[in-house]
Amino acid sequence: MSSSRPAALKTAVLGVGNPLHSDDGAGPRLTDLLSCEKESGISAFNCGTAPENFTGVIRKLHPDLLIIADASLMNESPGALRRIPPEKITDAAVGTHMLPLSHLFSYLQDCADTIMVIGIQPASLEDGDELSPEVEDAVRRLKELILSGKTESIPVF
Fold this sequence. Notes:
This protein is α/β, with parallel strands linked by helices.
C-alpha cells in the first residue's frame, strides 16, 4: 500500500478528538489504524483532546506533510471527508477541544512544508465510545488515501 507514496515524503498525522463522544473519536481512531501500518513510514499520533501536547514532537520531526484529522461539523452527509483551508477552520466547527485548531495550525506553520486539516463529518457526538458505521468507513477510506499519498483527492470544504 505505502509503495505508491513518494519515498522522500515524510508524513505525520495528528488525530484529534474525544473517543468518548462517539464520532468525535474519528481522528484518534485514524491514528490508531495508521500506527498498525509499521512499514508505512508515517508518524501517527493519537492526540485526544490535547493536540498542543504534540507540538514538540512535530517541531522535531519537521514533516513534509502534516495532516490534522478531526470530526468537523460541515453540513455534509455523515462520513464525508473534506480538506479544510486554514481560513475556514472555524466555519467547519473544527477544534472543539482544549486548543482551537486554528491556533494549532498557526503555531505549527513553520514546522511542516504543508499542513492539511481534514474534517470528517460526524453522525453523532453524543456520549459513547463507538464510531457510527459511516464514520468508521470514512476513517478507513482516509487511512488508505494517506497510505497511497492521495489526500489531495479529498474535496475542499
